[in-house]
Design goal:
By secondary structure, this protein is mainly alpha-helical. It has 20 helices and no strands.
Length: 403
C-alpha cells in the first residue's frame, strides 16, 4: 500500500516526527504508566503505528538527517557534563560498582550469544551483541553508534531496540521491587533505604524535573560546543586514518585498534570527554545541553521505529527479548553476587546496574523514585561515563566475535 504521506514530502514528515516525539515526552511526564513504559518505548510505538498503518513511509531521505547530523550532535550535548575528575570524585563507590556491572553486561552478552547462536543468524546476532553491549553499558546513543558503524539493517535494529527498551522498562520495575524487598534488605546493607522518606522523594522529584532558566545564549553556546566537537572529531579521524594507512593485511589487534581509533563515534566521545574535563568550569555555567541532547536522542529513537515492520517485530522480537533478557538478568545477578561478597550497599548496586542498563536519566529516576537523594548525582555521573565507554566496548565485542 502507498503511504498517505509521500516520502518526498519532507516538511509533513518532519512535522509528524516532531509531534510524535513531543507526544511521547508529554505522556511520559504526565502519566505514571507512561513513565514506567518510558519515553523511548512510547516514541518507538508511535512511530511503528504510523508506518504500519501506512500513514508515514518506512523509508525517506528526510530521515537521513537524523543519523547524519542529529545523533552526532546529541553525543557532545549528552556528554556536556562529562568532567572526568568530577565523575571519579563524586561518583565514589558507585563509579567503581558501575565497572563491576559493566563486566556483568559483557558476561551476559557472551552467554546470550552462546545460547542463541543456533537460533539467530550470525549476520544478525554479532552486530546485535555489539549494539546491546554498547546500549546496556551506555544507552540509546551508543546503540545508534554501533548501528551506524556497522550499517546494521533495519530488520535487525528495529525489533532489537523494541526488545531492548521493553526489557529495560521491566528491569526498572523489578529493581525498585528488589530495593523494597525484605529478603534482599536482610542480606545487604541498605543505609539509603533506612533514610528514605516517601514524601521527601516526591519533593525531590518535583525539584529535579522542574524547568530550568535557559536563555538564548545558553542554546547558542550549547550548539556551538556540539558543532565544534563534531568538526574536531572529523579532523582527528582524517589525521588518524592517514597515520594508520592500510592495515587490512595486518589483521588482529592492529586492525581492531584502527577501527576503534578511527570510528567517528569513538572520536566524538573522546573529544567531548577531553573538552568537558578541560573546560568544566565555563561549561558548568551553561544551562540546557542535557535537555537538547535528550530531545535529539528521542527524535532518533522515533525515526528508528519508522522502518520497523510490525510483522518483522512480532516474528523476530521474541528471540531478541530473550537475548536482551539474558544480558540484563546476568548483569543484575552478577552485580548482586559480587556485591554480596564485597559487602556493598544494595542501593548503590541497583543504581549502578540501572546506570548500565538504562543510562543516566534512568539511574537518576530510580534514585528519586526510591527516595535516595544522595545517589541521584552519582547515578547521573556514572550513567554519563557509560556513554563514554559503551561505544568502544561494543565495537570490541563485534570485532572479537567476527574473528
Amino acid at each position: 500500500m502507498t503511504p498517505l504521506i509521500s516520502p518526498d514530502d519532507h516538511a509533513t514528515l518532519w512535522a509528524l516526527i516532531a509531534a510524535g516525539t513531543a507526544l511521547a515526552i508529554w505522556l511520559e511526564q504526565t502519566y505514571r504508566w507512561a513513565a514506567r513504559l518510558s519515553g523511548p518505548v512510547i516514541a518507538l510505538l508511535i512511530a511503528m503505528v504510523l508506518t504500519n498503518t501506512r500513514v508515514m513511509p518506512p523509508a525517506s531521505a528526510a530521515y537521513d538527517f537524523v543519523g547524519d547530523w542529529l545523533v552526532p550532535l546529541a553525543i557532545p550535548l549528552l556528554l556536556f557534563r562529562a568532567n572526568l575528575r568530577e565523575i571519579v570524585r563524586t561518583g565514589g563507590r558507585v563509579f567503581l560498582i558501575f565497572h563491576l556491572s559493566a563486566l556483568g553486561t559483557l558476561l551476559g552478552v557472551a552467554l546470550a550469544y552462546w545460547l542463541l547462536r543456533g537460533s539467530i543468524e550470525s549476520a544478525a546476532l554479532i552486530p546485535a551483541a555489539g549494539m546491546m553491549a554498547a546500549s546496556y553499558i551506555g544507552g540509546g546513543v551508543n546503540f545508534m553508534a554501533l548501528k551506524s558503524s556497522y550499517n546494521v539493517p533495519e530488520n535487525v535494529a528495529g525489533p532489537l531496540i523494541v526488545a531492548d527498551n521493553f526489557v529495560m522498562a521491566g528491569m526498572f520495575v523489578a529493581m525498585l521491587a528488589l530495593a523494597a524487598s525484605r529478603f534482599f534488605r536482610a542480606r545487604y546493607p541498605h543505609p539509603h533505604s533506612q533514610e528514605a522518606d516517601s514524601a521527601a522523594a516526591g519533593n525531590l522529584a518535583a525539584a529535579h524535573w522542574q524547568r530550568k532558566g535557559i536563555g538564548l545564549l545558553d542554546v547558542a553556546k550549547s550548539f556551538a560546543f556540539a558543532f565544534a566537537v563534531v568538526a574536531l572529531a572529523g579532523l582527528l579521524g582524517k589525521l588518524l586514518r592517514s597515520l594508520f594507512g592500510d592495515t587490512t593485511s595486518s589483521g588482529g589487534l592492529v586492525q581492531m585498534l584502527e577501527i576503534l581509533c578511527t570510528n567517528k563515534f569513538v572520536l566524538l566521545t573522546l573529544v567531548t570527554l577531553l573538552a568537558a574535563t578541560l573546560f568544566a568550569k565555563p561549561l558548568a555555567r551553561i544551562n540546557g545541553p542535557e535537555e537538547l541532547g535528550a530531545y535529539l536522542l528521542l527524535i532518533f529513537l522515533f525515526t528508528l521505529g519508522l522502518p520497523a515492520d510490525l510483522l518483522s517485530v512480532l516474528t523476530q522480537a521474541p528471540l531478541f527479548f530473550v537475548f536482551c533478557g539474558i544480558i540484563a538478568l546476568v548483569n543484575l545477578g552478577f552485580t548482586l553476587a559480587a556485591g554480596k561478597l564485597l559487602r556493598l550497599n544494595l542501593e548503590e548496586l541497583l543504581v549502578a546496574v540501572n546506570a548500565n542498563l538504562g543510562g543516566a536519566p534512568s539511574a537518576a529516576a530510580m534514585a528519586i523514585s526510591a527516595g535516595w537523594p544522595r545517589l541521584v548525582l552519582p547515578g547521573i555521573l556514572v550513567g554519563i561515563w557509560g556513554y563514554v565507554v559503551g561505544t568502544p566496548l561494543g565495537i570490541m565485542v563485534v570485532e572479537l566475535l567476527n574473528r
